[in-house]
């Protein structure tokens, strides 16, 4: 480990569950983040700050003024620009050592396996039922751990899926778009997205460094309006 890295990641190294070996694992890891909105932008920035060495970010959307209430890494002057491209720039400004692959496309059946291939962990950040079903299925087939999250208003839900374990489809079967709280229609408070994204990052980091205390076979449900957190067995 270089002296610069020792200084940059000193607070992570000081955590018993991570330490120097854990940071080195993070530096060598490759993570796919699907979606660069409220969840994905926060996830990608936190993963980069945590030293994940290679990030693959996927998003076909552009920045809109309405995003800025909860998507904190975009600027007003960047409205109309590619979310993935701008986020990649922010990541490199924060941590130049992180390699970033940008895919300005929608993850679907035709490209899902290709985008997941070679990754050590996948973060689903689309907050879209159909995409969650697809990503969860692709990760299960590819044998890759993934975490999924949804937010609405002041509330959110997060679950981690391991190959062979309980899947998103087991908890939220095909019922149109009534899955994990679609935010596009109902709205979402910035703090709720930030909490859900932070939990997703925590799950990714724990998985990558070998900590087994994950939200697998469980569903975290939180409500910031009434300050309630609950972990449900699934």
Could you describe the 3D structure shown?
It contains ten helices and eight strands. Strand 7 and strand 8 form a beta hairpin. Strands 3-2-1-4-5-6-7-8 form an eight-stranded mixed β-sheet, with helices on both faces. Helix 4 packs parallel to helix 5 and helix 4 crosses helix 10. The radius of gyration is 17 Å and the shape is globular. The longest helix is centred in the last third of the chain and has 20 residues.
Instruction: Tally the helices.
Output: 10
Main sheet specs:
8 strands, mixed
**Strand and helix order:** HHHEHEHEHEHEEHHHEE
The CATH architecture name reads 3-Layer(aba) Sandwich
CATH class category label: Alpha Beta
**Arithmetic mean pLDDT:** 91
Strand content: 15-25%
Oligomer: single chain
Gist of the model:
The chain is of the alpha/beta class. The protein is built from 10 helices and 8 strands.
């Amino acid at each position: 480990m270089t002296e610069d890295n020792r200084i940059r990641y000193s607070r992570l190294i000081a955590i018993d569950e991570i330490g120097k070996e854990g940071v080195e694992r993070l530096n060598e890891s490759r993570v796919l983040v699907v979606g660069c909105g409220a969840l994905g932008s926060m996830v990608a920035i936190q993963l980069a700050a945590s030293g994940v060495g290679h990030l693959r970010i996927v998003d076909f959307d552009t920045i809109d003024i309405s995003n800025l209430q909860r998507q904190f890494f975009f600027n007003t002057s960047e409205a109309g620009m590619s979310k993935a491209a701008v986020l990649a720039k922010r990541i490199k400004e924060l941590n130049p050592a992180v390699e970033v692959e940008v895919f300005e496309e929608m993850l679907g059946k035709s490209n899902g396996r290709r985008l997941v291939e070679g990754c050590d962990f996948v973060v689903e950040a689309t907050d879209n039922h159909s995409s969650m079903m697809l990503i969860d299925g692709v990760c299960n087939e590819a044998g890759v751990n993934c975490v999924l999250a949804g937010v609405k208003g002041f509330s959110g839900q997060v679950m981690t899926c391991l190959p062979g374990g309980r899947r998103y489809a087991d908890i939220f079967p095909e019922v149109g778009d009534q899955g994990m709280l679609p935010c596009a229609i109902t709205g979402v408070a910035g703090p709720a997205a930030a909490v859900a994204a932070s939990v997703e990052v925590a799950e990714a980091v724990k998985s990558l460094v070998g900590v087994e205390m994950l939200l697998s076979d469980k569903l975290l449900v939180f409500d910031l309006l009434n300050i309630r957190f609950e972990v449900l067995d699934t």
